[in-house]
Structure formats: structure tokens, C-alpha cells
Amino acid sequence: MSQRFLLGRLLDLAVVLFGISVVVFLMIRLIPGDAVAIMLGANTDITPERVAALESRLGLDQPILIQYGNWIWGALRGDFGTSVWTGRPVAQEIAANIWPTLELTLLSILVGAGLSIPLGAFMASARGKGAEVAVRIGAIAGLTIPSFWLGIVSIFVLSKLFPGFQALGYVPFTEDPLGNLQRMILPVIALSLPMLANLSRLVRSAMLDALGQDYIRTAKAKGASKRRLIYKHALRNALIPYITSVGVAAGYLLGGAIVVEQVFAIPGLGRLVLGAISERNYPLVQATILVMTAAFVIVNFLVDLLYAVIDPRVSK
């Protein structure tokens, strides 16, 4: 990987993160209505004094450029302000809820990305056979079934078949490993299924394209076995577009986790941001959206670097 390529990607990352911060900052301020009056709530007497006090507390009485400068400087130092309702630092609110989301997302990536390679390789090697057609139909179904619907149905079915199975809520892995994994099974299946279906079809297409190349025919003429052709030669070249798609899919899993967490009552960032939106807790909304979108961008930045390591031609 060349130094020029790395510096270029770092510059792109900085520009994108700056743009995200501006959009998130302005998005809250462009919401129709008086944000301060909304935050005071319907059960509070909205007086000029109360409005002025809250504006001063949130820094909304300053010019917008100074507001943005103070906010982004605090964010760079890990200070996102104070939650309007709890009075706790926003960073503490996020830290207390981020681990369930990270665990759900990472497990979903492991399941979706890990199983898609052998599944896609099987579909490519068994092209045209009944088993391949059945798996391909299942992959298409996985792309069309919404995660929240699959989650609701799976809870209903499992409660009928196994009434004692714990499918809702969350317990930390360090406190109860078995209970944690038990509660993660259904959310991970619901969240990872679209990723598994999409990536397995991608691996199948990439491998079928690779199997038609000249170097595969040359290796076959030299007596290479079918297994060696598929899993050593074709699969290696199919992994390049696969890795890029994993990075994009991982980012979208963060968005999908918001819905899945609601279905399975998991106290993660999804429930946190939805609760903050309903409570008009704008400092918490800003910070949570910024963290989630920044995570999406950083994951794709790391994928770009990995892509360049696998195929050095990209960095030239």
C-alpha cells in the first residue's frame, strides 16, 4: 500500500466526517417549530425566562458558527454536551447503550459474512442442480423478508414451541454468557439474513465469472481438481468485490439494528436514539446519529485499506 494512497484515503475520510458533522448539526436546527419550546415540554409553563435559560444552557443564544465550533470541538474531545432530561453527559448515555448494539452488529456480521462464502461457493459449484436452485430461492426470500417481520414471527413461533426460551431483553455476556447468547440468537438471525442472502449471491456471481476465465481453464488442463479450482483459484478472486460489499453491509446493519432492537427489547443505541427523538432530547439525538454515521464511514475506510492490501493494483 503506497503512502500516497493512504494519505488520500485519510483526506477523504476527514472531508466526509466533516460533512457528516455539518449535516447532523444543521439537521436538528432545521426541524420546524421552536426546538427550545418543544424541549421544555407541554407540561411546563413556557415563559421567556425559561426559554432564555435553556437556550443559554445549550448554547443556542450564540451565532450558529460559534455553536458549531463549540459543538464539534467538544465532540472531538468526547464531550457531546448534557442530556436534557437526565442531566447526565451524553457520552455516558451513549457508552451505557453502545455495547448491546456492537455485540448485535458484530455477531450479525460474523454470521452473515461467514456463512455467505461457503453458501455462495456451493451455489457456484452446483449451478443448475436442484439444491442450488432451492438455496438461490431461499437467498432471494432472505432479501425480501423485512428483519422486523422475521423477528416478530420468530418470537411468536418460538414462544409456542419453546415457552421457556428467553428471546427478549439483554444481559451482558460477562454476567451470564449462556443467557446472553440465548437472547442474541433470534436478533442475529433477523438482522444477518438479508446480509447473508445478498453476499452469498454476490459470491456466486463472482465465482461463476472467475470460473470462466482463462487461468481457470489452464489450471483445469494441468489436472487441478474441481475443489482446488473452486476454493483456491476462483474463490480468491471472488473475495475482492465480496470484501467491499461486507463493509457497505456492515454499515447498513447499524441502521437495521435500530428496528431489531425495538422488536427484541434490546437496550442499545437504536432504542436510545428513538427515545431521544420522542423526547426531543436534541443533544443526545445529535451525538448518537453522529457516532453511528461516523462508524459507518470508518468501517468503509478500513475496507478500502483492506481492499488495497488484497489487490495492490488499487493503490497505484
Automatic annotation (TrEMBL):
SUPFAM superfamilies: MetI-like. Gene3D superfamilies: MetI-like. Pfam families: BPD_transp_1, BPD_transp_1_N. Residues 98-303 form the ABC transmembrane type-1 domain. It is a multi-pass membrane protein. CDD domains: TM_PBP2 (cd06261). InterPro entries: BPD_transp_1_N, MetI-like, MetI-like_sf. GO terms for molecular function: dipeptide transmembrane transporter activity. This is ABC transporter permease.
